[in-house]
Amino acid sequence: MSELSERNFIVVKGARGHNLKGVDIRIPRRKLSVITGLSGSGKSTIAFDTIYAEGQRRYVESLSAYARNFMEQLEKPAVDSITGLSPAIAIDQQSISTNPRSTVGTVTEIYDFMRLLFARVGRPNCPIHHVPVSSTRPEQIVEEIRKIPAGAKFIVLAPMAQSEKGEYLAEFQKWLRKGFVRAKIDGVWVDLDKARKLEKHKRHDIDLVIDQLVNEDRFLPRLRDSINRALSLSNGLVVIETIRSAASGSSRTMNPGERQIYSIHRACPICAFSFPEMEPRFFSFNNPRGACPTCHGLGVVGGDLDEGGWDGEDGSLVSFAQDEMKSSQLSDDADDDASDDEGGGYETCPDCKGARLRREALNVFVEDRNIVELSHLSATELHDFLGNIRFADRDQLVADKIVKQIIMRLKYMLRVGTGYLSMDRPTRTLSGGEVQRIRLATQVGSSLVGILYVLDEPSIGLHPRDHHRLLEILRELRDRGNTVLLVEHDEETIRSADYVIDIGPGAGRLGGEVIAAGTPEEISRSERSLTGQYLSGRMRIGLPPRRRPGSGLQLRVLGATGNNLKNVNLEIPLGTLCGITGVSGSGKSTLIIDTLYRAVAKEFNNPNIRPAPCNKIEGLEHIDRVIQINQKPIGRTPRSTPSTYVGLFTLVRDLFANLPDAKIRGYKPGQFSFNVKGGRCEACEGGGMVRVEMHFLSDVYVTCETCQGTRYNPETRSVKYKDKSIADVLKMTIAEALEFFRHHPVIHRKLETLHRVGLDYLSLGQSSTTLSGGEAQRIKLSRELSKRGTGKTLYILDEPTTGLHFDDIKKLIELLQGLVEQGNTVVVIEHNLDVMKSCDWLIDLGPEGGNAGGEIVACGTPEAVAKNVRSETGKWLARPLNLL
Q1: Is 782 in a helix, a strand, or coil?
Q2: What's the pTM value of the predicted model, to 2 decimals?
Q3: Which residue of 5, 328, 555, 732 lies most exposed, with the fewest beta carbons within 10 A?
Q4: What contacts 572, CB < 8 A, 6 or more positions away?
Q5: CA distance 362 to 62
Q6: Is the dihedral of CA 583, 587, 589, 593 positive or negative?
Q7: By the 8 A CB rule, do 300 and 348 touch?
């Protein structure tokens, strides 16, 4: 190969990370490439742990020695060499922020531009009198005063106290020494030489008399001087009060007349309510200048949320990260997602009503909406609003550049299929696919070239209709001169790639090899490639032999109105595999998770759960429990593992505690736990990793030098079963453990369920933080399968095909069909067409996302939905159902 042609490739030689077997790979530069293969075959190891990791390591090494002191020292991936690398950006599923302050608007930077827009062209209104507020120059104040009838008398006052507590005697004396003789104190005119101290704990209004004038031309210079003096004394405020003579006609008797307040700052003309300087941070809920002082910008109060606070010096935010290690002191079998269904104990902030901002910021408007109201619009609605808005001449010049930046970013959000998301949507509520797509939209807007983009299944959660939009974005990145590398299972994406690398042949230690590489057409002709066999149609997921009618009973949700739902009535036939479909943002999760699941769980599991609003639920008497199997992490710290989650590790500890060697030493099951003192390594407290504080950067976990990551002390590791210590068992894959424990029925049964959901390749001690959302969901499914079924269980799954290869999806469908055959009801939210065509009953929501969705547009068998002209899903179902 010539040197010139070599430069057109990223060349990886001898990659050995995890299960890779000395892999050599050539990836064409400035092309769209896909790495595919069975789940656990080694795709992510190549893309992220090898190629991207080496790119990051080289970047860090290029920095100064001083800068490297503050950054994670990245290890070199297990690879002989990598050439042709470009600066790399990873867009993966693991980057979802759990910070309660992170929103779609902040992640995409759209909210930053919205803050700038409101700071520059926003119109403040008094929150008390709801009248426009504006700043006035001293000369403008003089011009306004000159509009008083000619010859009228008036007083120039400097408001020195407005509803403030204090005695003020020292102030009276100070003003007297400076030559001032009169003041208006709590509505009464008082000579300062006769003024007495005021009641300390009462609020007072004090206006200092600056001058008394007649509205005549000869007094104009004096008026200007008096106005400027009043403004300087009272921090930019001046009061003009006209004089009405008393009945006696005495010129010295001054009765209250008309009173007008002027301000060189933004202040109410009626009550002088003043606005601070209009700057972007005034509209930030992450800054004390803008955040509601009651909830610190979170919108909620109470619960166990670590609200943090503000630094007294510069107003910067104190870290909101919770100490994960403290929260991990749980038993081995702790259910880390047990709190998913609880209300959490939070209450909407009583002051800002959940808006997060202080009232001054909430009373600044663009057109007739404040920044919170605009943030609540979907990206599509915000795009339309800003595209049609018109400002005054001067403001239009300022606003044009800002609005242009916002609209550009919104257009990219629409193009990647996330137009239904609002700017105030918390990022922690997004799916992995949604996070990737909004980050992808941000990257496309940056117009970078010569970059290596590495993405992890960006099609997750995307309706088939919207795939072409995503592919257009990816091609646009490629056509700019970037290299785009995807880990992907979606058939349409694979067929659209320039180059495909299939990893296999199996998962875990049975994978880690390049089975085939080339164009999609070349892959489809490969006999070794499982992916190729599905692409060519030699292997496929067939239609079920029949559509079950169900038991004749139904579960009904009546009058659901959560989020965008429009008084929806849902009917689920029990005893079926029921699919919930619809375009992204149409209301599927709101209806099934927030409404149905939470209402049923409130009845059976926890009365504190708060479901989304609906009129009532009917048919609960026909089921005896509900189980939600979602993609939330099964553990949030390196201590949590699949074996602890499914209850397997308790059985293994008991086995080791009953060994003769353990009994002689008096070891109990706790000796073999890495979460309590006794047998664990105390240097890392059983974590296998040691946390290194990085000051202003995220903490880094490094392998414990004392136990070398085994988690246990030498005494515990010396107790062995079949020549394996407890630490050795944790290193086993599920496939290896299945063989190792074949003579222990209870342990074997739990391992068998993990095998059935296609997780043979995971190790028992693998940290839960390294698992994808799809893997976490399948582990939860495994745990439920290991329990004895009742035949009246309602299972609810949210996109269980995430991260699954064609062949894995085939196994998953067989599993779900098996649950239904036992009499149970399985409700699955899904975009995968193979799952849809395998359902007994489909319920399709739409017709669009966001406010244009929230209705049931079709329901029935997959064939019936495919024939419904209103259904977007139906248009895509016809082909896999062989109806075309």
Answers
A1: helix
A2: 0.77
A3: 5
A4: 554, 555, 556, 578, 596, 825, 827, 841, 843
A5: 46
A6: negative
A7: yes
